[in-house]
TrEMBL record:
SUPFAM superfamilies: Xylose isomerase-like (SSF51658)
Pfam family, one: MbnB_TglH_ChrH
Species: Trinickia soli
Protein name (record): Uncharacterized protein
Lineage, top ranks: Bacteria, Pseudomonadati, Pseudomonadota, Betaproteobacteria, Burkholderiales
Amino acid sequence: MNQQALIGAGLGLRGPHVATVLGCTPRVGWWETHSENYFGGGEPVAALERVRERYPVSLHGVGLGLGSVEAPDGDYLKQLAALVARIEPALVSEHLCWNRSGSRYFNDLLPVPRVEGALELVARHIDATQNALGRPILIENVSAYVAFERELCTEAEMLGELVARTGCGVLLDLNNLYVNALNLGVDPLAELARLPRHCIREMHVAGFEWLDTTAIDSHGAPVCDAVWALLDAALDRFGPTPVLLERDTNLPPLDELLQEYAQVEARVEAATARMAAKASRSAEEATC
């Protein structure tokens, strides 16, 4: 079973939808699932193998905590490496976050303060992870609800430097970027401009919800107009890139989710057409 490249639009695969996917094989370009849900083997992994026989698959982790002070957990890496070897995913991704201190684990994706020493620490942990898996990984930007004093760079600048130091790629989550714009005043277009064009290997879109005056990255609502607009801007900057629609809570029936997925597909196709038209105009101008 060879790795397959991700092309166009994909959809997050969640447990309640697996049987439907296997039963009716919907027209979806590729699926992404959370790595940890398939640690330990058993029927879930067997079902994911059957999905993998029909579609490209991407593995997306939420538990590694690359920004924690401690090195990546050895048992976690062994389980992830075994899953990667069995499924042969097109891509493997994790978050630029921390989630533990000593023996205490936190069920959250906590943002890494971009202070002195943080870049070197995260780079070491990415190197260790890539060595354990025998392949490069993607690192995702995260939502944040507080800002830190005396930070040395923006999140986009840190991601770009991690790419340069480790050879990893970037998974650009546009909903997270927009949530940070609402909560912290981050300029999302400026962050897009700071990311090297070559480093974006995958993008995510999702929905958020309000808790009083705070935007919460819940992945439990439809994509809003502002995130769709960010997707168009990102596709124009980085070119046709695999784009995933995520939905983790308030999970609707698959048929309903596929209607929103069609919007992702249409926007990726429109961006591809815009790039082709631009290339054609440039070629015509060059021959004049």
